[in-house]
Amino acid sequence: MTALAPHLSAYLREHLPRERAVSPHTVKTYANCFVLLVKFAADRLKRRPTDLEIEDFGTDMIMAFLDHVENGRGSCVRTRNGRLAAIRSFFRYIEYRLPACLDQALRVRAIPTKKTDKVLIDYLDRAEIKALLNAPDPRTRLGTRDRAMLHLTYAGGLRVSELVSLQLRDFPDRSLSTVHIMGKGRRERVLPLWKETQFALRAWLAIRPQVQATEIFLNANGQPLTRDGFAFRLAEHVKTAAAKQPSIHRKRVTPHVLRHSCAMHTLAATGDIRKVALWLGHASIQSTETYLRADPEEKLQILEAHGAPGIKPGRFKAPSDALMLVLNEARNGCSPKS
């Protein structure tokens, strides 16, 4: 039997950040998955987490955990698939380090992901975005900070992880005219900023506390702002914006919705999906196609280009033959009349 703790520790502390060079956000996400998995297995097997062994995590245990994530914790299918991706990554790491666990690792890695619905994205229109950007009170320190955060997130189409990890050195010439982003998958991009965004950033930097933390955005205690902290402040400003723009009430505004809004407005302005992919830092244009499905303007252009076909109106005639009548009722899902 093989103890889990040393191998899981090496995976999170050495393999992911050093050998794979993944981002700190990815390490935190994977670590959170294994916190949930280890607690689940320890409760199920009535053992301490430090006493768990790799052999305890067979396909039955993993499947039970995934069901717990989806049903017991009420998470969506995408979250369930994300947990499975982290588990697969760990067992891929185990394969070549523990040959005795090879068969188990292959079985776990063969667990299929669940298909998810390709739902349309949520985004804010220009009036709603304007109301949201104006929601923070610039007369207060936190309001000045929040206005800069919202402006920068929307203007750059930033992920929350990209926003909270920004540092002063990410503005190369200190003029705030451009920002250097280290994105998902360690893909870098440099984005120009609007004058309004530069003004909001300068207002915050002028009153930002002088602390050792190099991150631009700090919480009330002078520590780097977290993802949850940004989400909390966004929710407060959404309430304020909704009072002026009631249509916001009908939408679920998450931090990622600001990124979606930037993408939709960029697509409307340029009409070029490649430019949207470039702005957002997508690895593949396939990731950007979801904005085409959500854009009604693209569908209207298709209608205008083709026009409706000329079809003469017809009149339905019921079949007179008894057998054909029965067959048509069966085809349409009706119970044939006796």
Description:
Keywords: Chromosome partition, DNA integration, DNA recombination, DNA-binding. Residues 119-304 form the Tyr recombinase domain. One of its GO terms (molecular function) is DNA binding. Pfam families: Phage_int_SAM_1, Phage_integrase. The protein has 2 domains: 4-109; 126-299, Intergrase catalytic core (hpI Integrase, Chain A), CATH 1.10.443. The protein has 15 helices and 2 strands. The protein has helices spanning 4-19, 24-45, 59-72, 77-95, 102-109, 126-133, 141-156, 160-164, 195-207, 227-244, 255-270, 273-280, 290-294, 296-306, 322-331; strands at 178-182, 188-192. It has a two-stranded antiparallel sheet. The protein starts with a helix and ends in a 7-residue tail after the last helix.
Produce a short descriptive summary.
With 338 residues, this protein is mainly alpha-helical. The protein contains 15 helices and two strands.
Describe the SSE topology.
Layout: H1 4-19, H2 24-45, H3 59-72, H4 77-95, H5 102-109, H6 126-133, H7 141-156, H8 160-164, E1 178-182, E2 188-192, H9 195-207, H10 227-244, H11 255-270, H12 273-280, H13 290-294, H14 296-306, H15 322-331
Antiparallel strand pairs: 1-2
Protein name: Tyrosine-type recombinase/integrase
Domain Tyr recombinase: 119-304
Keywords: Chromosome partition, DNA integration, DNA recombination, DNA-binding
Label this structure with key terms.
mainly alpha; Tyrosine_recombinase_XerCD; 338 residues; two-stranded antiparallel ribbon; hpI Integrase, Chain A
